[in-house]
UniProtKB/TrEMBL annotation:
The keyword Cytoplasm does not apply. It comes from Fusicatenibacter saccharivorans. InterPro entries: Spore_III_AC, Spore_III_AC/AD. Keywords: Membrane, Transmembrane, Transmembrane helix. This is Stage III sporulation protein AC. The chain crosses the membrane at residues 6-23, 32-55. Coiled coil: none annotated.
Length: 64
């Protein structure tokens, strides 16, 4: 796994948390929820190839 992906995930986490706090204090809880959901989906799309590779490695390990 690349180290850069960890920094990207951390940056998205920080930005989403700041954005959510700003939106919650301004009374926009629905937009805060959608922003956190969008951040989660973005990170999941980034790590989906790594999860797929992990399952393929586990599959090869047990089929040998």
């Amino acid at each position: 796994m690349e180290v850069g992906i960890l920094f990207k995930i951390g940056a998205v986490g920080i930005l989403v948390s700041v954005l959510c706090q700003v939106l919650k204090h301004s009374g926009r809880e629905e937009q805060a929820f959608l922003a956190s959901l969008a951040g989660l989906v973005l990170v999941l799309f980034w790590i989906l190839p790594y999860i797929s590779a992990l399952f393929e490695d586990i599959k090869q390990l047990f089929t040998i």
